[in-house]
Amino acid sequence: MNERPNILFINTDQHSWDAISAYGNPYLHTPNIDTLHRNGTSFRQSYCTDPVCAAARSSWATGLYTSETGVPFNGGHLHPETPDLGQVLSDGGYQAFHCGKWHVPGRDVRESFQTLYYGQRNIGAGGAAYYDSASTHAVADFLTNYDSDKPFYLQIGYVDPHDVCEYLHNHEEKRIPNPVEQGIVSEDALPPLPENFDYDARETVLHRVCRRVDDALIHAAILKGVRDWDELHWRYLRWNYYRFIEKVDAEIGRVLALLRETSLHHKTLIIFSADHGEACGSHQMFQKFTLYEESIRVPFIVACLGDGVLIEKDRFDETHFVSGVDLFPTVCDYASIDVPEGLQGSSLRPLAEGKDVPGRDYAYIESNYWGRSIVTGQYKYVTEYKPKATEDFLPPGPDATQFGLAQLFDRHDDPGETKNLAEDTAYNEVAKMCQDKLLRQEAKLHRQQIVHPSPKRIISNWGDRLRSYWQHDK
Amino acid sequence: MNDNSGHHWSFDYNYGAQNPQFAQELIGTLREYYAETTACDTRIGQTFTHVYNILPNYWRGYGGGANEELSIGTAIIERNKDNGFWNYSVHYENTTSGENLRMQFRCSAKHYRSLTDSWRIDARNSGDDKYAELRCEGYLVEDSEVRLRINGNEILAGTVDASAKLTCNWALFDVIPALAQTIRESDDGVDLVLLEDLEQLRPKSRLGFLESIQTPFPLDGYYLYGAGLLPSYWWLDTHGDIVIASTFFETLVLKEKIGENA
Which of A87, A341, B213, B251 has the highest CB neighbour count under 10 A? Predict the structure, then answer.
């Protein structure tokens, strides 16, 4: 008799923590993710390790932060000696399967997992319209035919709502009438602008150079396009984003229905999360790549549709901080498999079972190689490392003398992060407390030098731009 | 109009250096289609077929490399009228996803092409993975429950009001021409329930009139919009054929018609 549960990790892409109807969002309808919430524990203080696909996914795959994995941005390359979850689970007696988006450059998913479906042209960053339905078909085929005595681990990487990126690319070079002009919807059918549409321009240099200046390092063409947007265009972006989520919710619904129908649901643990979020107009920003909440905070649900896995159900955990590095040890805990040495995360199993155990009291997030953030119960601190005079390709930290500018937000009084308190002397002690926490966390990291030529080129190019900005524009 | 290629924004995906051949491919396909349809008698028996070229709206790896064709597949919609019903057979082949779908369904002969009792989907994956094929059979139970049976396992896809007009997105190639006048005359468009690819129920869908254009050809534009759907745009020519159907991610361009719509 096999006592170890099957484990199903369903992940969506670019899905902000609050874009779920069970969490009170009135602008979309996600009945199937809602079902997961009702059958599990939703961790509300859940953060990705790095707000971009490849980086965040490298943490899922390894249980490490992105300055440790070799993938600190989309063009990274996973360090070859780092073990991944598929390898560890297979060695531990699980059948480890993958379906859909992987996006961990430097590691061939087919070498670490048995792949149910990975596209004829391997799935890259986007393309939900081509891949998600096929992924569901592959999972349907798998669930209705699974007859092994071994427990399985299956990770399903849905691409949506990442296709909102293509929606944005579509606005790079052409003007698309807003839907009210098109006559498709009335204005009152669109979600309102986010309350934090306006923002405090005192942002880090890294943020400005990557996302705000005319020749921004990341998606300058989209930035140019959205500068011509009126309010309705921003609201239409939000409307579209929610439709992408409804599409992927429907895919998840078919998987859950088949899981029930095949009776596998009793002994299957389900984890649901997303690699990162979507700004969707907050701070007049789009996509991810920033350290604002909409970009870094993601859903994380641990659930079971049956009674075979002990889970506290229909519950919000509002206090414990969860990180993308926790996926690996959580899966291994449920699978009764030892984790490799050096992992940064912790198992969420005791918390999901409702046990009163101490958890992490902060989340640590990296971004664009030099960006750093610490989120605590009341405060959020964002800072950056200045680029080194001579780049050695060792991800920076911990070194307070090399910090650049900072942003500090009071999460209680200003949840939308619209007022930067970092320069307010009344908050000096808070800023120092956050810095100390950040430095202590960074001291625990096993940072490795980037050796692959492709990410080295990116670091060199971006570093040059940042140095130039510090010298001439700051 | 778009400053980029001069074509309507709903099917203009030239998209800088990423997708430079899009407009050329789209217009080239249509020019060839019109040249050939007027040149020969295409009527063959009772079967009426549309063949569409599938173009990716975004190049970024969804199509082939720089030296490959832009087209990523073909959609063939074949139907014949039998005993007061239309029998559809749709073959959708996508070389990016690697999934080939064959969808068979029967509709009433009324304008809305309402789905009748059962349908079938055969999916095949040509990629190098464990998933090779899947058969899914669908049923309409008591005109309200949409059920799917996959490898002997039956799930509820959703319920619809018995009076709702339930149809499939692939039947819209006939529904829109049939309802064109009605849609144009309606301020709010016409409501229908869509079973997308015969699997996903979209209960609150609506067809509406967008606008008419003269370039590159005289075309009337319609939109499809609804819960769980990204808007798609359908362009009807003066012969009553949908020649461009642009969904969020791909654009179908008519390249061949065999037979005439009875």
Answer: B251
